[in-house]
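Batch manifest, entry 17 of 40.
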Amino acid sequence: MGGEHVTRANAFFTTQYGVSLTLDSVGTQQFADLTKQAYEQQTELAILLDGEVVCAPGVHEGAIYGGVAQITGNFDETQARNLASVLQNPLRTPVHIEEERSVSATLGLDSIKSGVYAGLGGLVLVLLFVLAYYQFAGFVAVLGLIVNIVLLFGIMCMFNFVLTLPGIAGIILTIGLAVDANVLIYERLRKR
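Output type: structure tokens
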């Protein structure tokens, strides 16, 4: 029986973790036949993903009709959620690694250095422009931006965050949004 007949699967918790699943009409009939056979032969049903057994529950109370079933056992929350995900999102085609590449640590370090330099260069240019165009209001905006950056890096240091390329891009975006907000506010003030 294929996983495409599972219409819904989700983890639940009553006295223990489990997974409930709902089947479509074709799956309901196939599942009833499978559970009847497994109950009569006292065997287990295997749930496979890419040819590997994810879970093998037994059928203890007879055939399951109606297209609704529950899988219980000695699951923790993560295992129950993973099993529900396997049932909810079956892969029709197995995953094969087509290509694998690796780069040296120095290349990654060069990319991070380039990102930091680009961010600092952009920050300096933006601060100079804001100061030149808005004078005193620009000075206030620059002070606010510096406080924002100090708080951001302080929180990052406090929680031992690692600086990665996406993180650098996020910091640059945060600075850009802060400047953009200040520019909008000052343009509104000028119009009044």
